[in-house]
Each structure stands twice: as structure tokens, then as C-alpha cells.
Amino acid sequence: MGCETLMVLLIEDDPINVKLIQTLLSPPQPSPLAEGKSFALTCAESVALGIEQLEVATFDVILLDLIRPDSKGLETLVQLKEKVQNVPIVVQTASEDETLVVKAFQMGAQGYLPKKNLDSNLLVYAIRLAIERQQYSAKLEEIEQQQQEQEFQSLELLANSIKTSVTARMFGAEPLRESVPDIFQELLQSYGDLLDLALEERAYKVEHNISEKLRELADKLGFLKAGPRDVVEIHTKVLKEKSQHISLSKAQAYVAEGRLMVLELMGFLTSYYRRYYIGISNINISNKLDG
């Protein structure tokens, strides 16, 4: 069985630490934890040079020194994660601040290495553990992405299956997407804006009075003689659009918040039609009494 070579990108400006890492990853230094794997090290003195390397080569892991002249600490980690979401990052720092380490993991690091007392066992273990964590995270994201796609498909099937809703039978209404396409686009925009505000409410503990805005949207939908199919279609289209080109965690946040919003919107639309029918009934009763 051949020896697998792991490609390591080291972003470090201190030549002493660069030399140490090179030595620890070079034969015969690697520990038994390497389990037959070898390491090919590429060095970059700055984040900008590291990003250039990432654009022309593929790496299995990144070793990132958080404290460098061009570094802004954890902001550098975020910058790298935006460029390479699928490559695990192991942060290095001489700081013994545990809060910094915890924040680094919260912001996407898959490993941590202290600069003090670093040896080959600790280095190889951190590299291999970070790669395994990344592989596990990727598999978990794949499963969650499949579940999310299944939810979208179920919503689309639901929208397409509601062919003879109460409102459609009563008003002979076509889907809003077909009958008033320009207004339908405005409704998509309004619902999408509300979804963003709902996420902002949850993240920053601010108050945007989402329920009242949903009630206003429901009244507009009712005036347009919209039915459940239209609500589901608006919800599904907005979610699919919002979930593109963002992290899985944010996409999941949209889906979770959207579930609550669409139910509340349905409830308000039902209330609108209840008020409408009560009004119609009162008019009919009044006409009969007058007659």
C-alpha cells in the first residue's frame, strides 16, 4: 500500500517557527500517529500569499498563525474560511487565552496548536484530527443538504397539488404567478425581506414587529384572492433563492425561521377570509331583512 502525501499550507511569517514545522513534518521526525502518511509543506509569509497558493494548488490542511503583522486575529480566520470552506484550518498562537481558542473553533477552525512545547506528535495529531473533523462536517452537511432539498421538493409538490382550493373554486382564480406576475415578484420581495428581518430579530434580539407585517402581507394576498397554493409557492421560491451561495448553517436558519413564518402567514390569510365571509353573510342577511 503506497504512502499518502498530505498537502499542508503554512501561513507564518516567523522563520524560526517555519523551520520548526518543516523539521517536525520531515522524515524521520513524523510520529507514529502519521500512520504511513507523509507531509508536503508549502509556506506563505502572509494571508495574501496564502490565498494565492490556494488559488493554484490543492491543500489538505492549513496551519494559520493568528498573530502576524498582516493579521487581524480571528478576522483573518474568517477571511480564509470564506475563500476555502472545505479545507480545515488549524490555528496557531503563542497566546494562552482560552477564550481566543474557543472563539476560533466557533468561527470555523478545526484545530488548535500552541506554539510552546510543540512536538511532532502534537503537530501530526492536530493535522489528522482537523482533517477527520472536516470530513465528518462535510458528510453531515451533505446529509442536511439532502434533507433541505427534500423539504423544498415536498413544498413544491404541496403547491402543485392544491389545484382546487376553496379560494380558487370561489373566485376562479389562477395562481398569482400567472395572473399578476409583476405583483407576484413584489410579493416574493416582501416575503424575502420579512425573512431577513426575522433572522435579524433572532440573531440581534431586536424587534421588527414581524407578525404585524405578516398580517399586512396576508391582507394584500387576500385582496388578490390568493390561496394556500400561492402562499406555499411564495415561501418555497424565496427559500430556494435565499439558500443559494450561503453557508449551510445560514440556509438552515432560513428554513427554520421560514417554517414559523409560513404558518403564521397562512393563519392570517385564513383570518382575512373569515372576516370576508362574515362580512358577506351580514350583507346577505341585511338584504333579506330589507326585502
Automatic annotation (TrEMBL):
One of its GO terms (molecular function) is phosphorelay response regulator activity. SMART domains: REC. Residues 7-130 form the Response regulatory domain. One of its GO terms (biological process) is regulation of DNA-templated transcription. Keywords: Coiled coil, DNA-binding, Phosphoprotein, Transcription, Transcription regulation, Two-component regulatory system. Pfam families: Response_reg. The keyword Coiled coil applies. One of its GO terms (cellular component) is protein-DNA complex. This is Response regulator. PANTHER family: REGULATOR OF RPOS, TWO-COMPONENT RESPONSE REGULATOR ORR33. The lineage of its organism: Bacteria, Bacillati, Cyanobacteriota, Cyanophyceae, Oscillatoriophycideae. It comes from the Bacteria. The modification 4-aspartylphosphate is found at D65. Residues 126-153 form a coiled coil.
